[in-house]
Amino acid sequence: MSSNNSNDGGMAFAIALVGAGLAFIGIFLFAVLAFLAVIMTILALCAWMTPLKLGSITIEPHEARLFIYRGLAGAVLVPAFVVFSAILIGFRIDPNWWFYMVVGGYVLGSVGIAILEASSEDEDKAADAPPMPAPRALEPPARVRQEGREPVRMKGPARSAEPFRFASWDDEEEFK
User: Fold this and answer.
1) Please, what are the averages of pLDDT over each run of 10 residues along the chain (176 residues)?
2) Is residue 101 a contact partner of residue 109, using CB atoms and an 8 Å limit?
3) DSSP-assigned states of every residue in the chain
4) Which residue ranges does the record annotate as region Disordered (predicted)?
């Protein structure tokens, strides 16, 4: 049994567990986005020459071409950036990584930019919406008195029979 009473072992395990969880989430996102990129690429190829209508969504040919061109640019630029980084920093690229770099680049270039465009369009729509009118100050409730059956609105502030006077009391009596 160790006589080391530090919590470093537990902290290292917690950090490793968080790191493994983040890696799992990253792998899952990569797989889902790669599948989405394949489906969207097939749809873009179908809409290459003529517009494709899917329910309320219409994919125009120029949008389809941009989607695929951006994906191809990403498939070239991401591995090029990794090679540049490997030369600059001095690490070795495992040959098994090339497939994932190309697929990841295509996903980033096509689906990633499509997501960014959709979010910027939502922001533009929100900015183009007419501004909300400024809230108006509420009027105090009208004073009404009854004269027969008809209510009559009274004008001016409420008047009491006596004029306003500040309260008077003797503080000295309170402390005795």
Assistant:
1) 64 90 95 94 93 89 93 95 94 92 94 88 73 70 67 63 70 60
2) no
3) ------SHHHHHHHHHHHHHHHHHHHHHHHHHHHHHHHHHHHHHHHTSSS-EEETTEEE-HHHHHHHHHHHHHHHHHHHHHHHHHIIIII-PPPTTHHHHHHHHHHHIIIIIHHHHHHHHHHHHHHHHSPPPPPPPPPPPPPPEEEETTEEEEPPSS---SS--------HHHHT-
4) 122-176
